[in-house]
Amino acid sequence: MRRIRGLLLAISSGVLISACGGDAGSDAPGANAKNVVGQPAALTEATSKGYALSTVIWSRVPIGVCWDLNDADFSRYAAQRNWTRLAVQETWEQHSGAKFTGWRQCTNDRDYYGIRISVEDSATPGPHTLGLGAMLNNEAGGMALNFTFRNWSQSCQGREEYCIRRVAAHEFGHALGFAHEQNRPDTPSTCTEPPQGVSGDTMIGAWDLASIMNYCNPEWNGDGKLSATDIDMAQKYYGPPPRSQTVYTLTRAQAPARVTAYDFVSRAAKASIDLALTGDYTRVDQMFASTDGQRLYVSMERSAASVDLVTIDTASNTIVRVTPIGPFLSMSGGYGVQPALSGHDVYVSSGNVISVIDADAGTLVRKLVLPKDFSLIKVVTAAEDAENLYALANEPGARLEVLRIETASGFIRSGYPAGSAPAAARDQFAVTPDAKKAYFVGFASPLAQGRLTEMDLESGIAHALTALPEKNPLFLAAISNRQILFADDNATSPSAIILYDVTSNAKSTLLVSSAMTAFVQYEPNSKSFLLEQNGVWSVNQLKPRAGGKYRDIDLGLRSFASGAVYGGVAPFVFVSR
């Protein structure tokens, strides 16, 4: 029986402890696991497997990590702390969207979000976690690791890095909410290890011998490596590894225009993109990204009737194509641009026509022509509905209408009245990812005050959101099927950024400032919000903290560093690819 093998459930002062332990007379770490009898080959096949406790999956990433160590021990264990961090980076972080941050000494912050690690060397229970997943949140000694091995698993002495890395990879699996694989009720009789520690509530696929969380794995703690099925489980709950994250700032909007690309994590400038091109542009009109983050689009204006769309590859930060879109714009009114859900198509809406442009090829794919009396205000997509576009439009008789438009043909599949057209056009319009709800500013009459309105897209029934008295919302977005985000344009009054849950009617004011919000964008990986304010022109991040609070961080990424400032153009765009 090995000294180090997995996690043991102990009952101590009423607390469930998942502990790596064993009894005396242990085998050396790295020897074959015990109690595996003639394991059938079929059980080693990689299908989606795992055992997770779904109720304790962390609600957001990154997850903090700190060390409950005094100054002397924190310094003495620098190498061991680094081995721990590398083990986590090379396993859970490398293969999933799980991310950990901090890795400093713990403080007494009662709102701390993350895992507190102590270093202990007791014979029992050995390395352990106080439960699974978010049960560890801000718990002193929520995870205990061993760095010296004088009392526990003495066979690790002389090969501390080997043991520390493998134990850390296993324990952080528990910290993410993953139970022992042999705890599953479908564990085969060939694995005779008893259940240990807190069990999961969700079995994913068949039982997995190769899991790093399985005592019966022939390799101790999976040799510190995730199985293909460990990766499947981690990605199910935390998503795939994050892609390259970049913030593009509009450094100069006036000709000669320039965009600067910054790495989101390090904040270092990666590229400066010259948009002078032919040199006859007057200004940047709009800036936005493709849905998959592969492209950045910048519309460049010579005049209202002469506009080009610049396509930038976000991998190389080079210009792919410049496409004239002026020929697709009507002579009266403005225009809108919206990226397709996939590929490199862009929808250019103007008047009653939606032109589908292949922005990489610079060609017109097709035109979607609505009845001539319609005038499109804004066209959007719904993430889970590739077959339709959604539009807020003026219809004959100075009325607004919400349209569902077939992407392939331009056929209007449904249209619902949305109130009076206001005296001044309002282009705030959003649709939930599941395409069941639409949000816009509704008006009882052309001169009436607008109210944020929700429409059921199956029935067409609309009602004002009475909990939201804000009259001038900007940057309206449905960030999920139940949450909408917007900034309140109060001009000289304090301006707010608001997150509203339409199911629970919970309203959260994320920020109140005397400066108007120039742009706000949701960053789903960290569940934070990026914004700029008029006159400040620096990208800030609102990072979530405990208790529904947010920390406002100036990232120091500047827009409009020179030249004139133009309203109505996004001064930055966050891109994940």
UniProtKB/TrEMBL annotation:
It comes from the Bacteria. PROSITE patterns: PROKAR_LIPOPROTEIN. The keyword Transcription regulation does not apply. Residues 1-24 form the signal peptide. Keywords: Signal. InterPro entries: Host-pathogen_enzymatic-act, MetalloPept_cat_dom_sf, Peptidase_Metallo, Quino_amine_DH_bsu, WD40/YVTN_repeat-like_dom_sf. This is Peptidase metallopeptidase domain-containing protein. It comes from Caballeronia fortuita. The lineage of its organism: Bacteria, Pseudomonadati, Pseudomonadota, Betaproteobacteria, Burkholderiales.
